[in-house]
Each structure stands twice: as structure tokens, then as C-alpha cells.
Amino acid sequence: MTGESLTVEYKREYIDDIKKTIIAFANTNGGELLIGVDDDGTVLGVDDPDDVMLKVTNSARDTIKPDVTTFMRVEPRTIQGKSIISVSVQKGTACPYYLGAKGIRPEGVFVRQGTSTVPATESAILKMIRETSGESFEKARSLIQELTFECAKQHFLEESLAFGKAQQRTLGIIGEDGAYTNLGLLLSDQCQHTIKLAVFQGSTKNTLFKDRAEFSGSLFKQLDDAYAMIDRYNATRAEYQGLKRIDTRDYPPQAVREALLNAVVHRDYAYSGSTLISIFDDRIEFLTLGGLAKGIARSDVLMGVSVTRNKKLAEVFYRLHLIEAFGTGMLKIKESYNNRSLQDFIQISDNAFKITLPNVNALQPDKAERPQVQTYQPIEQRIVDYIKTHGSATRAKVQKAFNLSQSVAGKQLRKLVEQGALEKKGAAKNTVYCMIEPK
Asked: How confident is the model at residue 363 (pLDDT cuts 50, 70, 90)?
């Protein structure tokens, strides 16, 4: 007999590792495994062919996922007067095949390399998943199957929606083969994609960082954490026109919300890099991996046309009322900026999509031309509003109302006094803080 090759493997007798060879053939180019033949091609035969065939069939059916038995043929053969077992395996159509106990990881996925069966690399596994699933990343089986959904459960609970196994199958979190999909991975607490946010001093990245953070975990958690940090740096300009006070945030909250959701829902998660958010003095940039979805041109986006790359992810967000309607996000950003052209906000390359939100207060005339104008950080604005509503407040009341420490509450009040927003009256325990109305 000829020797072993990419598509031929010999085994002296039945051993448990035969299932790895079956997986490797199914994941590569198919092949034939001959049991009862020595490595050098010497025919040894098997004592009980029926027992060996039963063991091979049961092992493949019970340990290999997805079901590979439809691509196998196990039969006895006689060579040189001796009985051997032939296990013919075709290349499967649901690669990667893997050991159910190990999952879709290098320890569980095998391929043929020369005359050997070896663990597949993660890149080879991802390639198999993409080839099997076409362009739908979110429908493909997740490489990680040990997933938890504590954050997702909380969001569904807040909307009075069930989140059991049946609902997870309907949503596409669990696939037809019973394994978690990449959509499940994205919504799980183990999601490996992240959002990185940096706050710069000035208007370029050549300046120093004022702050930065990386948000991980479920996409729900990343959204909440990223929005909260953006909101901390979304200052409020309070302007008085006569007796009327007008508050203007640096960035319209609706525009921030839509840009952030767009960055999460429409990004291409086949890329491993992070979504990047950069806050400058005059703008916020949301940089998303993945260019336009297939079939969409830049001119379509500028007209407000939207095609969702991750349809099932968008459906989940729609059910949770995070997305009010499909395809309206960019139009809401446009409306937030008094219907400015979408061209002012969008930059597109082959593999990236950037939304830039200008700071509306930075676009206003200089302060010298605008007396009686003050810009507050969000916590400062809430303290001002609180005191304006109550007429006055002590440090202790502010501390309790906003769950601040004694030192932080005192620092914020002193800062507002220095800015001319509040007036300090009394002393020691009788100290209160009041509004200073414009003259």
C-alpha cells in the first residue's frame, strides 16, 4: 500500500483520537481513514470489524459538532485477505467541525497539514466560519461558547421582555445547531470587542490627553458607559437674554445618541479593532471599522438611505427601544444641527466610517460679544438648577441630593461661587448658597 498523505491516514487499531482525524478531513479536503493498517502501510487487520465500525460511528455522532455523520461512510474492506475498516469522510458544508466538549477553539477544531492532523489556528477557524456563513458575521457560530448574559438580561427586564432560551433562539443569539452565535457573543458579558474613548486638550491629537477609557463587556454595557463619559464632557452654556435663560449643550444629546448607536450597530465586527471616539474642544469624532454595507454608496447615505450590516443586532436594539425606527439615525443628527447637510458630518473610506459632531457652542461668537454667558460641566449645571429651584441650599443638602462626598460637594460649590453663578451667604453651619441673578 502507498503511504499516508493529506487525504489518507492509517491506524493500527481503533483509538479515541480517531475522531480528531474525522474532524480534520471534514474541515479540510476530505479523506479516508483505514483502521487495521500500520503507519508504514503494513496491513494488520482488525479482530472484530462490526465492533470497530460501531465505535467509530458512535464516537462521531456523540462527540463531533455539528453532525458530521452525513458526510461519513464507514464500511469493512478486505485487503491482502485481512479485514480492515474504511472511514471515508467528505469535506463538510458546516465547517468548522469541532469536539463538542472543547468548543470552537484550537483545542477542539482540527485540520490536515501534510500527513498529520493538527489543531487549527484561530485565523483558520475564523476563515472557515466566514466561508460557511457568507457575509453574515452575526449568524456564524461564536468561537467562545461559555457565555453569560447578566447585562443583557437586565436590559430585557427593564423593557418587560423575556430572555429565555426560546427567545434567544428567536433573536438569533442561539443558532440552529444549538450553539451561541457571534450575535450572542456581542451581547454577552464576554464580548471581546471594545470602545476606546479619548478626550484631548485642544483640537488635535498632538495635544495631551485630558482623559481616556476603554469600555468592554456586553455591547449594552459599552453603550451605557460610553454615553455616560461623553455626557460628562458635554458642557452646558447658560445664556441670559433679558430675564430668559437659555441652556445649550455643546453637542445635541440626540445627535450624540444616534452617532453612538450608529457606531455600534453598523460596525463590521469581523475586524478585531476597537470603535474609537475622540472628544476635542471643537468636535467629537466617532470612527467605526467597516466601510459602507454592500450595495450602498456614499451618495445614498447623504440622502438618508440606510442598510443595516448587522440586521439581527439592529432588531434586538429595536425591540429594546434603543432604535426607534430603522434608517432614521443620520436624519436625526441632521435635524439636531438645524438641517445642515449630512455631508458636513460624514467621512467614508473603504474600511472605515466616521461621524463628526461639531461643538455648537464653539461655533458661537466670542464671549466678548456675548455678555452674561457661562459654560458649566454637567454636575455644575445640575447643582445650579437645584439651587435655582429651591432658592438656596446648604453644602450638606447638595451633598445628599447628588450623592457626593463632602469634599467634592464643597469644591463644586466654591467653584460656582468663583464663576459668579452662586452667592455664598452666612458662615460656618449657617452657610447657604443662592443664585446670583443677572443685572
From this structure: low
Backbone angles phi, psi at 200, to 5 degrees: -105, 150
- What is the reported pLDDT for 439? 44
User: Alpha-carbon distance 41 to 424, whole Å?
Assistant: 96
β-sheet bridge partners, residue 352? 289
CA distance 101 to 69: 17
For 130, phi then psi, to 5°, come to -65, -40
Q: How far is CA 89 from CA 3, 27, 65, in A?
A: 18, 10, 15
Residues 164, 183: Cα–Cα separation, whole Å: 15
**Omega of the bond prior to 66 within 30 degrees of 0, cis?**
yes
CB 357 within 8 A of CB 371: no
Q: Is the peptide bond before 119 cis (omega within 30 degrees of 0)?
A: no
Question: What are the pLDDT digits (tens) for 170-215?
Answer: 999 998 888 899 999 999 999 999 999 999 988 888 877 889 999 9
pLDDT of residue 370: 42
Rounded to two decimals, what is the model's pTM? 0.58
pLDDT digits (tens, 9 = 90+) for 137-149: 788 788 788 999 9
Coil, helix or strand at residue 385: helix
Q: Is 430 exposed, middle or buried (0-12, 13-18, 19+ CB in 10 A)?
A: exposed
Burial of 427 (0-12, 13-18, 19+ CB in 10 A): exposed
The answer to whether 10 and 41 have CB atoms below 8 angstroms apart is yes
pLDDT reading at 61 higher than 90: yes
Mean pLDDT of the residues in the chain:
86
Dihedrals phi, psi of 207, to nearest 5 degrees = -90, 175
**Which of helix, strand or coil describes residue 58?**
helix
Among 146, 249, 253, 255, smallest CA distance to 192 is for 146
- pLDDT-wise least confident of 38-42, 134-138, 164-168, 349-353: 134-138
CA separation for the pair 231, 152 (Å, rounded): 22
**Is there a contact between 206 and 198 (Cβ–Cβ < 8 Å)?**
no
Note the pLDDT tens digit of each residue in 86-122: 999 998 888 899 999 998 889 999 999 999 999 999 8
Strands 8-11 and 31-35, sheet pairing:
parallel
In order of their start, the domains of the chain are 8-133 (3.30.950.30), 135-373 (3.30.565.60), 377-435 (1.10.10.10)
Of 51 and 361, the structure prediction assigns the larger pLDDT to 51
Q: Report which DSSP code applies to 137.
A: G
DSSP 8-state code for residue 36: T
Instruction: Compute CA 149 distance to the chain's CA centroid, rounded to the nearest angstrom.
Output: 13
